[in-house]
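Hi there, hope your week has been kind to you so far. Thanks so much in advance, here it is:
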Amino acid sequence: MDTSEFRRRGKEMVDYVADYLEGIEGRQVYPDVEPGYLRPLVPACAPEEPDTFEDIISDVEKIIMPGAASPACTELETVMMDWLGKMLELPEAFLAGGAGEGGGVIQGSASEATLVALLAARTKVIRRLQAASPELTPASIMDKLVAYSSDQAHSSVERAGLIGAVRLRAIPSDGNFAMRASALREALDRDKAAGLIPFFVVATLGTTSCCSFDNLLEVGPICAQEDLWLHIDAAYAGSAFICPEFRHLLNGVEFADSFNFNPHKWLLVNFDCSAMWVKKRTDLTGAFKLDPVYLKHSHQDSGLITDYRHWQIPLGRRFRSLKMWFVFRLYGVRGLQAYIRKHVQLAHEFESLVLQDPRFEICMKVTLGLVCFRLKGSNQVNEALLQRINDAKKIHLVPCHLRDKFVLRLAICSRTTESAHVRLAWAHIRELAGAVLEAERAAETKS
């Protein structure tokens, strides 16, 4: 959709809303549709090719409005999470439409998803231990609980541990900045020997610093053997798994209890939209379900509906699945795959430009849309380069530390980025690098 069509469609939507408001007194205040009405009206999978905007708007009136906002808000979310799960080729156990016990829910962020998973895992282990030893109190169990993640995990994992009031162990990553089985096993054995209770592991696929991937095929079996809840945080990288050539990065997901990524990061869905799946939805509802009289309704015990207020921390929810429906239909699966592939191609183009300049080095294998690079030399010279880049305000880079190295990161993440922008960014970086190195030589000469 170009800017001209965007203007036209925007005006059409204002007219749609205005017409709705003008005719609102002719609409029922409560829908006639029964729970489960929506799924038979929409396809089982996302379309491969784009649908027209006119067809989508027509379906809004025919399919959504008869059940707006309830049960359409809930039922479209369930279907869209199944659509997305199928695009990722998730195991059937994570889908709501099959015979499994799982399903998907839209959280506000990956931080929320990690916290929800940790709290559900905490409740589950406390109840399991109390069932075996009724004399144990929740407080005495919580005092011994330990969660684990790679030392490359996002800070939101540490925050989840703080909010959940449990210890969090940072497992040292290997030379590729990945969590491996040996390091996790060593930490588990040490903690169990000290009388502590391991219960929760976060594996990161596509770390924030350098887009590294924890080894699921090693970590997963250990979690299964030790009865540990395995949560996968793929906040950034998860979008790429809709492409067959990147799906192998998700191998081992079958060992997970919960999996999360952010369509609002790299799948063209506006913030906020964080997709989370669980194998057993009762693990979430068992931790969060409360039913005060003012929230009771006639269908809550029918088994026909999903009550998402029991799957999350907030009580209120927005109709976030509607924007997923629009995006998936306007682009089609192939359009979304092409978008991801273009960004990865642009990242490799930038990588090739860096490799042609002997002053620079690539610091991590480029897998998706992130390039980690630096000037060969001290951390100070790279910090000076970053300062000049961001002060110039033509492009913006966010750094990281990889072990003892200060590293610059270029992320391809805008819908409108083209090869010309990548080359412009590189020319700008090279020019500023020359100035930084000249200033360094001048300072050395003076000293």
Notes: The mean pLDDT is 91. The two ends are 58 Å apart (CA to CA). The chain is about 45% helix and 15% strand. The domain at 71-318 is CATH 3.40.640.10 (Aspartate Aminotransferase; domain 2).
